[in-house]
Amino acid sequence: MPDRPLLRLPDPEPYTTRPGPRGGSDIATPARDRQQERLQPRFGRLMRIAEHPQQLLDLRDDPSSIAPERAIVFVVAGSLKDFYAQARAIGLEYLGDFEDEFIATEDFYDRDDAGKPVGGRIYLAMPDVQALRELLSLWRRFTEGRRMPNGKGPWRELFASLIDVRPWGHEDRVPPETMAYWRRSLEDRPGEPVRFEVELWFYENAERRAQAYRNLEQEVRATNGRVVHHAAIPDIRYDAALVDVPPDQAQALLNNPHITLARVDDVMFLRPQSVVQSPPRAEPDDGEIVGEVAAAAVAGAPVVALLDGLPVSNHVRLAGRLIIDDPEGLEATYPVAQRQHGTQMASLIVHGDLNRGEPPLPRPLFVLPVMRPNASGEERTPADRLLVDVIYRAVRRIKEADGEQPPSAPDVFFINFSLGDSTRPFARAMSPLGRLLDYLAHRYRVLFLISAGNILDRLPVLPFRTSTEFEAATPEERELAMLNALNASKSQRTLYSPAEALNALTIGAAHSGSAFNGGFPETFIDPFTDEELPNIVSAMGLGFRKAIKPDLLFEGGRTPVQVVQTGDQLVVQPVRTGARLFGLKAASPGRVAGNRSEEFTFGTSAATALATRAAHRIYDLLLDGNGGSNHADLPAEYAALAAKALLVHGAAWGPKGELLDENFQPQGVGSHLARRDDIARLLGYGVPKIDRVLDCGANRATLLGFGMIAPDTALLYRIPLPPGLDGVRAFRALTVTLAWFTPVNPRHQGYRMAALDVSPGTDEKYWITSTRQPYQPTDKANMRGTVFHERRMGEQATVFQDDGYVLLRISCRSAGGLPPDPVPYALAVSFEVGVDTDIPVYEPVRARLAAPVRAAVRQ
Hints:
alpha+beta, Alpha-Beta Plaits, Rossmann fold, 20 helices
């Protein structure tokens, strides 16, 4: 137990907020007459037959027409605050929306930068006959310059900002990655049915949903195909089917992608089948054989669950340390030699990197296998089930009773998900699996720790052309070239679903591994000089709506690169084997001694397992009342959030953040927002220092608090400062981390229903140290996810105000519709002075916390 355990924040006070200034749009839009000229061809035919219901219904035979019971795409410059409510008011069924960017035109452009892409949203809604008539009536009023009916004023804004309006068509239903997937499937398995997913529009009415599924079944049968699996999860507006179609029908869709399933109005997307599978083995040999291992001594209920493959339960490193829930009886059909990924992840969670010699976890690890080996021996999720449904049922089994079946591990607060769907790289829209994990995190108050994904693709590196040039460069020159190469390839190295989930912590791999001894073989080249940079394979952010992702980097191996192409351009590739030279040691099935083998691994899966282990460690220390913890009575509903806040609290960019900020483009006044977003794609919040967070120093105090905050309210925290700093010029730093679980609203453009932030509680701002450290994510980026984390520092001689308290305000703003209930949060605050200042912090702060605090409420 630390000598100076975390202190407890005093209870907050209510705070009456003042409305802030309203922002205005900076997008130029065309005049009304120009809008009529542009869009009248879309509405003209509809207006001519609007009063003839049968003719309107006949439009459904023409896939290029807006028609009843067919989704309409509204492409809008900017965004509309309450399109959801406005659509429902005229009878349109709101189906969803997502962000996009559009090339600037003479009609739509940014007033400050005419060449800048125009940000906007795509809204989706489905009309019946009456709703279509109402829409046309509003359009007519707009084009004639007449007043909108009461309550319909926002439609004038929509029509004025409308870039395009059209039906949802085959080009929307069949994205390019689906076409590529069909081609690969036909090439890899000629003559076999092609399996893919069909995402249906989620209708509010249950009977309408049932009819949509019956329509899909009929269309699939018409192609001589079959529905393999169907699942609907209303809480995340998910309705999908896994289907097989004959190879000739798949080829027909490739040749003519607007036939059969691609033109069914109830279909939203045809997607590649979503699967997660283990990466290739890092070591081709038999690994090492472990000697004697002390018998397991574990006690208590598990607080961590591992969703992965089945581990080798009798491995000497794991025997007696696992609780395996195997409802499908995989033990009998899962060959020991193929239990690679689950064994390694379980080992890393329980023991950490075996080279480090850390003590094992004191509690058992709960394991629910969601993968199994296929015919090729690869571990992957079931081929005959929708991935979203597999994970939904697994988490519900852990946390919720089902009839007479009790929850299998109700005390679990942390769920390790060292898996990713490479068929769904993140691209603006939240994936169904990401939506699911966000929903489950908030519902059950659990923290998902998700791997960012491993990108093993080749990487062009400028300005080098030959391996001789590359090897002759200094390590610092190579490093900067590699970092610039990663930044240039950011659109091809994005996160794997569900790493974009907002309520989760997404973990990238840091360029660090215990096996690295300072050198590599001649053909292996170390791309970086610093262990706090990302591993070369670690997928890059940002996340949904540019939220900071990955959140953190944990040790994931010091992976070298090899030159694979020279000439006009030098191309490198991450080394895929030889992890014993740079990775992390973990238990493994091995080829000879399946229950005594140890091998080396690397990448974001391993990093995520270490992050989960760190969360468990935080939980144990917080609950250790016998060891002096001030948080031994931490309520269960805040356990995951407390760990979430503290995991991030010790993270920082470090010196390489400054290097990247000086070298990444763009440079110049006002350019730091885009530049630091690109740095955050690589570093997230940085590499956390867990020991520093959990053990305060004489010159540093960390305080932890938690609670609930109602929507559109604020709370005021009074944090005492050491009196010795009054009027003294000395280094001081204030670090604040706020973490929460937001409810989500998949129907609303905001999605994240609760946006929390921290700000000064007085007009004097932070006053004790008001300068924001520059080398960290921007204040704007800090507001996009479910973690707020910033560090302020200074050396000014400040005279104490507010009775020597720092006043911090937590605000909760409704973002995606009004949250139905108060939102849970955890807050970590650290205050420190320089080690050479000789001013004590911890003991004076602890003493002041014990004294009564004068109550005051901001009016």
